[in-house]
Amino acid sequence: MNRVFFFTMTLAVALQPCLAQTKSTAKPKPPITAQATRGRELFLHSPKGTACATCHLVDGQGTAIGPDLTDIGSVVGPHGLAGTIKMSMTAYVQEVQTKTNGTFPGIQKQKDGDVLQIWDLSQMPPVLRTLQSADVTSMKQNEKWKHPPTGAGYTQQELADIVAYLKWAATGATAEIKPSDL
User: Fold this and answer.
1) What CATH number was assigned to the domain covering residues 94-141?
2) Reduced DSSP (H G I as helix, E B as strand, rest coil) percent helix, strand, coil of the chain, to 5
3) What is the structure's pLDDT at 101?
4) What burial letters (b/e) apply to 123-147, b meaning 16+ CB within 10 Å?
5) Closest to 7 (Cα-Cα) out of 66, 88, 91
6) What's the CATH class of domain 3-89+148-181?
């Protein structure tokens, strides 16, 4: 597992109680900057492949399949966020093997008794599958599926714009993010 991602996720989980308190007492955000606006557009409608919002939620926009990036954006710096965007593997994606439907990359949404809900990432947008636990023969760390931004070819400036959006959405930060910050 990528160390930057592991640290990022560990930090985000550890700070959940603090983040919940901060959200309840947060001040209104300042107006969005031009850089964050460009980043939001890339997040929501990337011309370079699968948009981040296909699988991630930020500031109430997008889809909650992968982690909500609002919380991560509030505690992780620009370098860590850019590293997380560019990493090819994620800890959340599992290789799901079934008795009847073969193998697919997936993220488990929930388990209720003997029923599993798993997002099938072999399709874009991902499809939520409902499976009986007995039909799933194994779930192990993914070794094939790649995080879509890996192959998108974002420039350093585009990554800086996306990071600026994540920081603005999470904390209201308006400071410019420079490519050299990544």
Assistant:
1) 2.30.30
2) 45, 20, 35
3) 81
4) eeebeebebeeeebeeeeebeebeb
5) 91
6) mainly alpha
Domain ranges of the chain: 3-89+148-181, 94-141
Whether the CB-CB separation of 160 and 181 falls below 8 Å is answered with: yes
Mean pLDDT by 10 residues, the chain (182 residues): 46 48 65 98 95 94 93 94 91 94 94 96 94 96 92 95 97 97 94
CB 143 within 8 A of CB 12: no
H or E element in which residue 166 lies? helix 156-171
Structure tokens at 163: 């990071």
Element of type H or E holding 138: strand 136-141
Residue 75 neighbours by CB distance under 10 Å: 18
pLDDT of residue 91: 85
Q: Are 176 and 32 in contact (CB under 8 A)?
A: no
What local confidence, expressed as pLDDT, does residue 27 receive? Answer: 74
Give the model's pLDDT for residue 65. Answer: 94
SS3 letters for 31-87? CCCHHHHHHHHHHHCCCCCCCHHHCCEECCEECCCCCCHHHHHHHCCHHHHHHHHHC
pLDDT of residue 113: 95
